[in-house]
Amino acid sequence: MDLKIFKQDNLFNVSLQFFRDVIGLKLDVTTRNTIDIRDQFEEYGIRSKKVEEIWGHINKTYYIGLLDDLNFKEVDSQNKGNDLEKDISTVERSSGEYPGILIFAVDLNDGFNPTRSNLTEINRTLNRFSQRAPVLVLARHGNKISLMLADRVAYKQEWREGEKVRKVSLLRDIDLDKTHAGHLRILRDLVVPTSGTKKVDSFDGLYEYWKEVLDTSELNKHFYQELSNWYFWAVKHVVFPNQPTDEHIIEKYQLKVGAKGFSKEFEKKKEEALNEHNATNVIRLLTRLLFVWFIKEKKLIPEELFDLKSLQQDILEKVSPFQEDGTMFAQANMESVYYRAILQNLFFASLNCPIVSDTTDNRVRQFRGDESYGKHRGIDWMMRYKKYFKDPEAFLELMNNTVPFLNGGLFECLDDKTQNLYIDGFSDQMTKEEQLIVPDYLFFGVSKEVDLSEDYGLKSKKYKKAAVKGLINILKSYKFTIDENTPIEEEVALDPELLGKVFENLLASYNPETKSTARKQTGSFYTPHEIVNYMVDESLIAYLKNAVTDWVWGEEEVDKKLRQLISYESVSPFVEHESLTKDLVEALDKCKILDPASGSGAFPMGILHKMVHMLQKLDPENTLWKAVQRDKAKQETEEAYDEIIDSKEREEKLVEINHAFDQRVNNPDYARKLYLIENCIYGVDIQPIATQIAK
Questions:
Q1: Domain check: are 256 and 333 in the same one?
Q2: pTM of the full predicted structure?
Q3: Residue 664 confidence class, pLDDT cut points 50, 70, 90
Q4: What is the predicted pLDDT for the residue at 360?
């Protein structure tokens, strides 16, 4: 699929070529001119501050045409044309659930890099031309294109005609030169099927097919299946230190050793304990690497660390991505060069260590000293494994130039070398009985078939010949985004919620009470968005009803207005009530939320997003939110005993608050999220790694 055609000047021609020749749509046109979009907005009564702002960044708008059932009929549909007003009239008169889809292309101004919300707003604005027909928009911006498709739903209010846009699905920032494999796969899936079980021969069929292709839940299922196969394969090929001993198993399960030695029950429990040990460590590795993959989207991790060619030519002395037992590669894989030299140094000695020291942390990124093994033995934040690098100092420089210090628990090394306790095994020389084996082929191995039927408890061919390949190869084949999806805009990519889904589902796969169900119903052990949203909405409405006392309406009207506030409508229902708005902002600041079984954070994340959304509507300029934080800082320091310390601390806190709210350096949502996370949202879980992921 050659997307370089979009580098040609005339966007109409290349868009038509793309939809006709690549996607396979039978579109007929009679005009290739731009449309005067502002005149059209005026005619259809489409006006708002948002519309003015976003269309100030758009150079040209083209109407490509109407796609409806006529495009699928074996009749001559020439002269059907692409007249916008005529087509809108046609779809408004049509019967059927989906009368057609209006296709537009927009050329954005040079230098404008649209956000996800900008692209969503473009689609929503064009959707206002028709009460019934959804809109597909192709946007060209710089060296990239984006596609936005609307999903419509009927209004709940009986007095409102037509349908509203429920959700906009986006395929965003498709690079024309270096198109991501994940984008290419989705674009290929959008091609109209003309044969087989998924053959499309009507507009309704095409629209439903496209919605399925662009459904992130389907994308997540596909990804989780590949990841699940990899996990069950990997657990059998790894060895981590601190394996359960015979004594530990006897004590844990209160087993007795007879005269003939260990019983069958002991052997069974030992196998279970070893599987659980390997599973726990593989899940920890996986969640760390997935987190890294997301921050790589922000250009905070060097791409070279995941490129086999760069690793072999420039960084490592050797790396062995082949699984060939009984060959020269077998011993090389035992050394686990990639996991030790690259991933462990990234996790424990880069992300968990500052680049330079400061007044609160005197650590500095560096390799462990060569002078003597014992000197730095207990220090688990220094880089190790110099012998594996072509140029250790160049590697250190690469990390320092790109990788930030993340002051979080997920990348803390769990070893306690002073007690000879190894869990992560970040060591040049562990005690004799300990081993760490994570073969290179688990990361870069080519696709192969393995028997995982016993792991899944299913005997079908799908699991007897399950496809597995290296984890890095899997991750590279999907597009990731750092923006959480919402009910009204959904980027067709894997979003950060995936961290929690993967963790909780894999955890369930070895838990004795859930493993049978979890393995057969892959991806089912995570609270779905819809349930989280319901819990969040009802909790916040109940809280705010009681937290604010000066309501000027009855209970039914208050409930209605609070539901408008938490909805994804853009205008606050309290915009005319300054005093109530202030009370609501203060109530959100005083709210304390505790999830006593938080898992990896589905509910805390859901309530954070909804509270941020409410603050955006109540206080778009952050004026009230900033005043609340400043007043609170002053009050806290005034209550301190020591007036000298009190004065200094107050100044430091106020400087910190001003910096958080400075929109020259931070997005407005930064300050909203920062103080909500610090003061309002709490979680507890029996699994330490779950709380680390949630944080």
A1: yes
A2: 0.84
A3: confident
A4: 81
